[in-house]
Write a structure and sequence with these properties.
Layout (H helix, E strand, L loop, with lengths): L1 H10 L8 H8 L3 H10 L6 E4 L2 E3 L4 H14 L4 H12 L5 H11 L9 H8 L3 H9 L13 H15 L9 H21 L4 H33 L11
Antiparallel strand pairs: 1-2
Helix pairs in contact: 6-11, 10-11
């Protein structure tokens, strides 16, 4: 009984919280993941009472559960999760931002792959991955992490590279994509700049859906019309 009192007085009422081991056990997250969350700003810094003594706010348990729920349901990058948490911290409704983010990033497709696993899944080498990234053709949402979309396009790139097509030969896609997205953002700003955040998110969600449909239609239809107008596969008109 005396030992209990001594321990309580050492901690004191001004240092509430959980040790790292307790937080890891309560959330199922390893220490490395918790420290990564703290470093990225998803979790508040612990209260440090000594070189090797730190206490985490018990509210971190629910916060981590919320983060894990977002990560298990959606393909949100951590930067977007930070924005959602910031809205919640301000006492604002985050539902509209979550819905918009789901439209933009999609649903979760399993655990992201690291570079070694991505190489195994696609047949790409580390050098080829680096070159594709430099040319704006491989665009992971988080550095060193690859999702299902990355794997699908990575396999296509691997086939093209095997045929002798260089990454630089395909770099025009990245140039055109930047120009298209820049113009889409300007158009969005014209119609949403005067709106409050919730209305902005709702209209932006519709604009994102329309932009995707327009990109697919205009580019595919331009390609189809070019092919339809050609007389044969060697027709010089295909290049004009």
């Amino acid at each position: 009984m005396r030992e209990k009192t001594k321990k309580s007085s050492v901690l004191g009422p001004t240092v509430p919280g959980l040790r790292m081991k307790e937080l890891a056990e309560a959330t199922g997250l390893p220490k490395s993941a918790i420290l990564h969350y703290v470093a990225r700003g998803l979790l508040p810094e612990p209260v440090r009472t000594g070189p090797n003594m730190a206490y985490y706010d018990p509210a971190c348990i629910e916060r981590i559960k919320f983060i894990k729920t977002l990560q298990s349901r959606y393909a949100f990058p951590l930067g977007k999760i930070i924005m959602i948490l910031a809205r919640k911290d301000e006492g604002k409704d985050a539902d509209s931002l979550i819905e918009l983010s789901e439209t933009i990033f999609g649903s979760a497709e399993g655990v992201p792959l690291d570079e070694a696993a991505f190489c195994d899944a696609t047949g790409l080498s580390s050098e080829q991955i680096e070159t594709l990234i430099e040319n704006g053709l491989l665009l992971p949402l988080e550095p060193g992490e690859y999702n299902g979309q990355d794997v699908t396009i990575g396999r296509i790139y691997a086939q093209g590279l095997a045929l002798g097509i260089a990454a630089s030969d395909m770099a025009f896609y990245a140039v055109a994509a930047k120009q298209i997205v820049d113009e889409e953002m300007r158009l969005r700003a014209r119609f949403t700049a005067h709106l409050p955040e919730d209305q902005d998110a709702g209209l932006t969600q519709r604009l994102v859906q329309a932009a995707r449909a327009t990109r697919n239609y205009v580019i595919d239809r331009t390609f189809q019309r070019r092919i339809a107008a050609s007389g044969h596969l060697k027709d010089e008109g295909l290049l004009s």
